[in-house]
Structure formats: structure tokens, C-alpha cells
Amino acid sequence: MENNKFEVTPYEVTGKVDYERLEKQFGIMPIDDALVERIEKLAGASNFMLRRRIFFAHRDLDWLLDEYEKGNKFYVYTGIAPSNQMTIAQLIPFTFAKWLQDRLDVEVYIQIPDEEKALARDIDFDTAHALGYAAALDIAALGFDSKKTKIFLDTEYAGVLYKQAVRVAKYITFSMVKDAFGFTNKNNIGSIFYTSMQAAPAFLKSVEEGHNVPCLIPLGVDQDVHFRLSRDALAKLGYYKPAIIHSKFLPGLSGAPKMSAHNASDTIYLSDTPEVIEKKVMSALTGQQATAELQRKYGGDPEKCVVCQYYKFFFEPDDAKLKAIFDGERNGTLLAGEHKKDLAKRIIEFVENHNRMKEKIKDRLDDFMVRG
Amino acid sequence: MENNKFEVTPYEVTGKVDYERLEKQFGIMPIDDALVERIEKLAGASNFMLRRRIFFAHRDLDWLLDEYEKGNKFYVYTGIAPSNQMTIAQLIPFTFAKWLQDRLDVEVYIQIPDEEKALARDIDFDTAHALGYAAALDIAALGFDSKKTKIFLDTEYAGVLYKQAVRVAKYITFSMVKDAFGFTNKNNIGSIFYTSMQAAPAFLKSVEEGHNVPCLIPLGVDQDVHFRLSRDALAKLGYYKPAIIHSKFLPGLSGAPKMSAHNASDTIYLSDTPEVIEKKVMSALTGQQATAELQRKYGGDPEKCVVCQYYKFFFEPDDAKLKAIFDGERNGTLLAGEHKKDLAKRIIEFVENHNRMKEKIKDRLDDFMVRG
């Protein structure tokens, strides 16, 4: 049935991703209605990213909720490896983490591995560090509670992380990393070691508390491989395996399977000006016909339409309104120009509000940061 | 001419080590009389480890002394990866570092990589950490000046070291580590990364000062491989390549080419009791004939005699007295029993004095430790 080719690694996503096949390939479980309902019940609210399966798969989420119901509260761990200004796509796990914090009163640990991209790409460490701080501010500005949120950069928190990372590293061989990431003997030893630094925050709270604390990691599904490697190591160390909840990829403006922080014309950065955002959105791929006339006649395909997808992933939480947009695209009443202008307006509004939040919070960013 | 087989790696030393061949193999320079004289002149004193070529080879020592003469003072960096109680053999680089500090007023950085052996061997991290602190006390008790000495354990100083280690790691591939250490794909990623942690203190003072500071590393020649890997990386980062001065191996009591911290009966630990030391020394290999009668008649070979070698390496700094011991062994006037008893007395005296120093200093060990 399926014959399209796609590849999902932490370094690259190519082809049209078939998420059902990916579930089988990665050995992760689909999120079904019952699971969504269970979370909604505990949270006392519905979350559009769950309803729409932007978060579509998981590991051990049932177990995590069992523990929660028994009074064994989890903490949330997520992160971002900065290689450029932060993109709107990169907000997804953080937005979801904030929702979890608001609804379930959980602590959130946010790792910013400012060494990772400097090791893996042609970015120098100082630049990556500065980008890490820019990301920290973008994340804090989403409205996390500073009393329940720790943000840390690896080069500033290695005093805490390295000690735990080496314990994980002892159980991970080069063979395992080679298979998992497609590394060769030419990869540098920092990149090879890195996955154990990413593993450390998944049991750090258990170390701090002196007893096991469940952990939930919301992440883009391309990052799952890190924990395929380290979950077993954590179990060997006597810690819970972290539960994971996986998100789909927000496409690039041109329809690329995953918005890349490195392709400026395909990507909306939180640092983009309104003019730039408008220009970029006006260039976005839609699922529409070649002309307005044809579009009115035949209608378009919301699944192929980047504009529709941005609404779905992020900018239209209201299902009825989203349906109206999708219907308009499908039945030809919504034309590309208007469609894009509306989205541009929405994104500009979001970014302007985000900038106001950043301005407001920037002097107390240190309330979120931990070092050591 | 030479047909004996030997191998020197940081993990194992086998066979009778031919140091001249090792110099060629490693690409290190012999220490000649002119260099010893030059150091003695600067130091205003002679050092028996240099005179006797216990420190026998180097990298860039001429350059280091040129810089020193120009007023560009160096610092000393050495260390020990604890896997057991500290042995008398392991004191060699520290004793030399202390001499340099006393004579040339230099700072000394001492790394105790308490993760290294836990990654490489079947030792748990907590045990390695405790052994690291035991080693720190043994080292501080040698009489270092706490104002000019920094001792650090990797798991407690990773906040400083990791940030520098990843910069080195970017330039070191798995291929390079594989060739240098004989690693395979089965080695764990912590061990693979480790060499960059060992590289960090070699330019740490330059980072701290904001300008290049020459560094001298006294080490057992088996550790040279770490810096063969990282010296080039340091140059690429814009730092001086560290100068290195290499020591020979103190043999095990049974005549093993290198005293091993893992073979208790072959090794004298600083923690051994006088009774244990006496018993161990009495079992030591000498270069003597099978019976007292034969020894009186034919004499023995001081080069093969472990007892003579212990005097030479550590316990008899006075050349005239050492000559008398060697002569006695050679001409048959010094019999094994007396020979060993004398050495045992000397070692017991040393260890008892060392224990007194430890007792005296233990409450101010923190003056030496840096964390971060």
C-alpha cells in the first residue's frame, strides 16, 4: 500500500512522513481516544494538540498516568538544541509542557544543550551559547511558572549533568550509537558522547529527590532515538524509564516535511519582523489550484496546504474555526491570498505578543535558570 | 638488535619496556644532559629524578624553558585516575610537580578523573569518587602550597571542564581514538569521550587568564597518547600545545614492568600497614643469585633488582648512597635479606611520615579543592 520513502533522524527528515509506519518502525504506541480522554479528565480540560494528534504517539504514557492517579506525580522534561533563532515549530513541545504545568501542577525541566549543534555542525560554541540564552528567553516568555521550572544550558549545568551522564554512558557502546544515529568513525567524540547528556535530565529529579520520580518527555518524534538508547540504561541504573509523548513535524513554508531552523526562507523565526513574516507567509505552499477560478471550481486539499497545517498545529486552537478554514480550503470559497493574509496576521499577532512577554520577563530570566 | 616485545598503553604495560624504542615509537625527545643542566640552573637545584632519567623524555620542554626565561611562566598539570588506594609508583609525577612548585614557584593543577576508571573498569562511580578523595588527600599531603595548587575531581569540576572538553572533542574523531587507544565499537561512549576531559586542564589556565599560559605535564609515559591526540586540537583552538615530561615505570614487586594498583601482592599502597609493607618487600624480586653463597661469589644485577630500582626511583635521592647500594648488589656484599629489610624500613618510614602529614592536613583539604 505504502510506497513512499521517508527518513526520520535527529539530523534530517526527508520524504512524506507516514506516522503510522513510523510508530511501527520506532516501536511507539499510537495515542488513542481513550488515552486522550483519560488525560483530559485528569487535566480538567481538553488540549487541541492532543485532540488533533499533533502529539500522536507515546511510550509508557498509561503507566505515567497510573502513577499520577496513585499520587506519584511526574515531572516534565523537554529541551531544544539551539542552532539558530528559535522557530515557531520549536514551540510545540514547550507549549504542551506549559499546558501540563498549568493543568497538572507539574515541574518542568528544560535542557538547552548548547554544545550539541556546535559539535554536530559548523557553529562555534560561543554562538551556540548565545543562541541558547535567546532560546531560554523565548521559552520562559511562554508563561512558565518560574517556581516550577528549571532551564539550563549544558555548558553551564555540566557540574550537575556530567556526573549523571557518565553513569548512562557506561551502558551505551559506540555500536549502539552508530546504529541509532547512523554515525561513522569520522564523527567526533563529543557528538558520540552527547546522547548521554540528553539522557541525564530524564532521571535528574530522581537523583535530586533520592527516590524515583516519573518523568514525561514531550518531544518531536525525530528525537525518540536518543531515549531508545538510554531508557534501558536508566532502568539498569535503577531509575524509571521516562514516558515519552511524540509530536509530528510542522512543515516548512514550502511544504518541506519539517521546518528547518537553517532554511530562513522556509521558516518563521520568533525574531522575524512583521514585514518578514508577511512576506514569508505570502510565499507559503497551499493545497489550492493554480488559479482562483480553478480553486473556486475544484477546491483544494487542506492536508497539503501549509497554511491550513499551521492553523491546525498552532494558530487555531478552536476546532469549529479550524473546520471552517479547512472547509473553505476544500470547497474553494477560501482563496489563497486571503487565506495567507489571515494567517500572517495571526502569526504577527502571536509574535508581537510574544515579544511583549519577552520584554516583560527578560530581567527575571535568571529566576528560571539553574547553573552548577 | 632489539627483539623483545613490549606494549605500552594507558590500559596495560607488558614486556620489558625499551625506552629508547618507545621514544621513537611515540615521537618524543630524550632528555639529554644539556636539558637537565638547563633546568637545574633555572631551579637552582638538582633533581634526582631528572639526573637519573626517571623522567627520561619530553615534548617541547626547550620551548617551555625559553618561555620561562622570557618571563612567561608555565603552570604544571598532572593527575591520577583512581581505581584503588594510591600506590607509591603513582607518587612520581606529583613528587616532581611539587619540586617544580618549590623551585620555580609555579601553580599546579591536579585532575582526579573519578569517572575514568568507573567507565573503563568494573568499579562503580561512588567507589571511584571516594578513591578520588583519598587520592586528593594523599597528594595534598606531599606538601603542595594550597595557595598555588588546585585539585579537582571531574564529577565535581565538570561545570568548568565539560565546556572546554567539548571544544577539544570537536576535533577528535572516533577513528583517532580507536587508533590511539585500540578501542573497538564495543567501548562505551563515556570512555570514548574521556580523553577530551583529560585535555581540558592543559589549557584551562589560558581560558581563566584570557591569554595563553604555557603548561607542563609530568606524566607516566603510558599517558602520552592522550596528548598525542589533543595537542593538535589545542593548537587549532588557538592555545599553546602543552609541554610534556615523561617518566618511566616503577616495576611491581615481582618485577612486573609497571606496578599495578590492581595486584595487591605486587604493589605497595600508601595505605599499607608497616607489617604488610615489610611482608611485601621481603617477597620482592632481587637481581641476586639463588643462594647467599652464590651471591657473595658472583654478585647480582641491580637493573633486574626491584629493591635497587625502588631506591633509584624514589627512596634514595643521594647518588653516593645509591651507588653504594648498587655496588653492594653487584659485588655480592649486600645480601637479599638485609637489602630488603633496609628498603622496608625506608618505605615504612616514608609511609608513617606520609600518614602524619595526612593527619595534619586532612581538615584543610578543602583549601586545595576546586569545584564548579
The largest contact between protein chains, plus residue counts on each side, is: A-B, 41 and 41 residues
The mean pLDDT of chain A is 96
Report the span from N to C terminus of chain A. 53 Å
Large-scale geometry of chain A: globular
Spatial ordering of strands, largest sheet of chain A: 3-4-9-8-5-6-7
List the keywords.
homodimer, 372 residues, alpha/beta, seven-stranded mixed β-sheet, 17 helices
Task: Tell me what you see in this structure.
The structure is a homodimer of 372-residue chains. Chain A is α/β, with parallel strands linked by helices and 372 residues long. In chain A, 51% of the residues lie in helices and 10% in strands. The first copy, chain A, contains 17 helices and nine strands. Chain A has helices at residues 19-26, 33-43, 48-51, 61-69, 92-104, 116-120, 125-140, 154-169, 174-181, 189-199, 201-209, 224-236, 274-282, 292-298, 306-315, 319-331, 336-361, and strands at 7-8, 13-14, 29-30, 55-59, 75-79, 108-112, 149-153, 215-220, 243-247. In chain A, strands 3-4-9-8-5-6-7 form a seven-stranded mixed β-sheet, with helices on both faces. In chain A, strands 1-2 form a two-stranded antiparallel ribbon. In chain A, a hairpin with a 4-residue loop joins strand 1 and strand 2 (13-14). In chain A, helix 10 (189-199) packs across helix 12. Chain A is globular, with a radius of gyration of 21 Å. The termini of chain A are far apart. The mean pLDDT of chain A is 96. Chain A binds chain B through residues 115, 118-119, 125, 154-163, 165-167, 169-175, 177-178, 183-193, 195-196, 371-372, and chain B through 115, 118-119, 125, 154-163, 165-167, 169-175, 177-178, 183-193, 195-196, 371-372.
